[in-house]
Specification:
With 306 residues, the protein is an all-beta fold. It has strands spanning 5-8, 14-19, 25-29, 34-38, 44-49, 54-59, 65-69, 74-78, 81-86, 95-99, 106-110, 112-113, 116-117, 121-126, 131-136, 148-154, 160-167, 170-175, 181-186, 191-199, 202-203, 215-218, 225-231, 237-242, 246-250, 256-261, 267-273, 279-284, 289-294. β4 and β5 (44-49) form a beta hairpin.
Length: 306
Amino acid sequence: MTDIKVLATGLRFPEGPVVMEDGSIALVEIARGTITRVAPDGVVSVIADVGGGPNGLATGPDGALYVCNNGGFEWHEEPGMIRPIGTPASYSGGRIEHVDPKTGAVKLLYDRCGSNKLNGPNDIVFDRQGGFYFTDLGKVRHRDRDQGSVYYAKADGSFIVEVTHPILTPNGIGLSPDEKTLYVAETEGGRLWAFEIAEPGVIKRRPFPSPNGGRFLFNEAGYHRFDSLAVDAEGNVCVATLISGAITVVAPDGHLVRRVKMPDVYTTNICFGGPNRKTAYITLSGIGQLVAVPWQEAGLKLNFSA
């Protein structure tokens, strides 16, 4: 891929890009603890300082930004590269936050589901009903790691339910155009799963040997780790792929459509905007850039998005 336009540099592990009404891009800077705006002219400003580790981001039915906060990481830095390496001593848990994009006001929505604490909320997608699905990847410690989960919650903070558990390192999450299928990407192992939705927040669980109630959709040989994802208007799943540094495009039937190479092993997130939603906004987190790439297919319009 050569036709890459750099929109912003010097970002502190950016993820979760969201296209705003004014054409700017809101995103998180995980290592900075902020929700950040990149204006069309490239000017970078802070919308809110939420602390911890803001990770996934989505616009909700009230126009607010909904944040998956993983609680923070320890970081390794070297010239030209930053990467997460574990859980910091300051970690106190994960949470879902509500941020007013105009004032920067931050409100806690959820930090647990029943008796289970949220450990590392990662990515988020809203359905047409105004509720949202989100992944909880968990946290990694020196000798062990958490089991992951997928949850569904209402935007007003009144209801949260576990959709599936355990699931290995669930990261990216998205809905098919008809909202009958929920897609979840596993980071470790680079697997993509499809879950049949029975009703909002409820899946039709597949029996054993499915480990999580879902239908295995895709992976391939080699060292690939999946991060966030977006769905295009044709129903293809576009998964940001770590290590190989690419966007992996997978058809709904599970075959590989193509892989679009990017110049960073920490290619982490993708969203669509621009005329006819045929521009892909991609976060290159290791080198701290937000870039724009012309895209072959139109992106699927997200519920409540600009």
